[in-house]
Design a protein that fits this description.
heterodimer; A: alpha/beta; 7-stranded mixed beta sheet; 18 helices; 16 strands; 42% helix; B: alpha/beta; globular
Chain lengths: 452, 363
Amino acid sequence: MADNKILLDENEIPKRWYNISKDLPVPLSPVIHPGTKEPIGPQDLAPLFPMELIKQEVSQKRWIKIPEEVRDIYTIWRPSPLYRASRLEKVLKTPAKIYYKYEGVSPPGSHKPNTAVAQAYYNMKEGVERISTETGAGQWGSAISFATNLFDLACSIYMVKVSYQQKPYRRNLMNVWGAEVNPSPSTKTQAGKKILEENPETTGSLGIAISEAVEDAATHDDTKYSLGSVLNHVLLHQTIIGLESKKQLAKVDEYPDIVVSSCGGGSNFAGISFPFIYDKLKGDRKDLKATAVEPLACPTLTKGIYAYDFGDTAMLTPLIKMYTIGHDFVPPGIHAGGLRYHGDSPLISLLYDEGVINAKAYYQTEVFEAASVFGKAEGIIPAPETAHAIKNVIDEALKCKKTGEEKTILFNLSGHGHFDMGAYDAYYNNKLEDYEYPADLVKKALAKIPQL
Amino acid sequence: MIGFLINPIAGLGGTVGLKGTDGNTYKKALELGGTPLAAQRARVALSDCYTLNEEYLTCSGTMGEDVLRDLKLKYKIIHKNKKKTTAKDTKKACIAFLKMGVDLILFSGGDGTAKDIVSVVKKRVPILGIPSGVKMHSSIFAINPNTVKDLLCNFHNMELSEGEILDVDEKSYQADHFNVQLFGYAITLKAPYRVQGRKNTFYEVPEDRSKEEIAKFVLEFMEDKTTYILSAGTTIKKICDLIGVEKTLLGVDVLKNGKVIAKDTNEKQLLKIVEQSSEVVIIVSPIGSQGFIFGRGNQQISSKVIKKVGISNIIILSTPHKLSQTPHLFVDTGDLEIDKKLSGKKRIITSYRMTTLRIIKSP
């Protein structure tokens, strides 16, 4: 019988997260206060985050201890299984060996609770009573409400309006876990009201929702803000994925030649890849290929510019140096593929700029086609976001079919698609449009803006 | 047996920027150097049809006989007309077609000719148009002349469907007001990739906002050094509305440096402007529901103009709603080579800084 599932015991859950900031080829650029234009300090972030997370955000320690209370909660679903996709390999007739880390086993169905639980814990320890946050399709919203519920914290979620309408069941999941969910832009914040005045029919965006959540936290003493991706401490928590994967692959005497994951804000890509990129940066695995996969509708890395930009639309957040397609970016309303954030993690942006990682972008119909091939072969229905990675994995596997190489490919199956069957329905009824961000035309537009 | 007729003056106004060929417009079109397209398009449509072994009943001279004779197709004249033909000849021919029991009426013309035919034929026999008029909003025309042969090969076995006969009040049209009216219904061949749908106009609040978003983006990337040929339609007109410049709704204007430098142009004028400009871009929008990007409503942007401007210098705009109601996109410039180059996967600007990829069907 084929040994397709590689498991670890609960006591093999890593005891430390890996902090790639320590090993970067060049230092990260400082985060800038939009008012003073000076690098921000801990006091600037204190209204939004608990001190322990601020420390993690700027830490230069390579390894950071995972609190036992957090590991204890992780045991609800961790260690997550690593699968050999042998059925997919057969369908593709590829000599490549494909492995995937399945994070869909968590109660919210994705990798997001790896950081949600940690963040809720640190907030609880510092006496915070409420968390405010944003969510796009609802993966992050479900995860944070799952986590805040475990620590008896209140939770207010600003959900991008079009997703609030199109994905009611994720919203209901948040309600089960006690969260209050608001369609964004809402009338609860000044940021939301301003956007609604300008465009009452807006479908909303992550940038707008972030503005609302940040304003909510900044204007309430009992509330802190929580983010599902982009920031260093969030990516830090997600490295548990890659650290477990390393142990699991070692059990079958394997190490990846290629690591792939989808990339919106960067947390799931960082999670699976950073522990392996550590080896590459050390010089042990110079040929490791790590690919971040994004949609052509929101091609932050492949078509964006590496510059300082706001993390949100209302320009409430500090200026972060990252790959961006502009903080006023609003993705098309019926883009089913997710991954719609205008920017990217500063860590991932730096690694991409330095050539340590690659990036690839696809249209959503080809992504759903790949998802269907995977679902049929392996049985697991991937979330549309995750399917971006699968498309690249299939491409790499087919390359191996041509060349005859037996490469080992590892990817992060970051979430299941059970709440996204509406998107699959649109795909099967040929209602999905292929969107593409017209970077060349936007470049022309930006060239006309005077540079100060 | 196929009843076949040509409206000899159909299409005369197209490349010279007139909105039709009814009434006095015919003389004006001739003065401006317009050429009728109907016979030429009919020749393209029937050029390989001698293998089909169909017999054609037709009218004398320019109303059908000349083309069939030249193509060596089997025909019989059932209506003799004078040299100067009128709508009466079309109607008399149709009466004869019905008497002889034809299986299909094939005509070369536009909405006006379709209206004349249906006034006699009603729904008694299926009709199919070879698109060669200026106005072709009705849903009984083949996508382009090249698809006619495929349709004629199979029409005996094809499903039929109801088609709408639309016409635009030409006086209003000339005065830049689009007022399409439903004249009646006909029976035509059911073939979505081969027979065009009707034109639809979309009126919705979100539609207006979409047009604004698209126009805002276009204005952002427009450059002073570039000359822009702006095709017809409300989506494109919005660009000029936002900068407070007048644009003809149904005509083709030329914009440079934020000013309209030529209004309601014809092919000749466009060719001259292109000759004199270093960089030219054509901005077009598909006809709602019908899906034509070139060849309907903008024949003055002819294949000659497109060749000079360059295929890569064409920008297509459409609101998402229009696109969702327009299942197929087509081009029909009359030049098969250009049509093929224009077809394939193309980006369409559907929102502020966003495009949608769609396939323009190859002839």
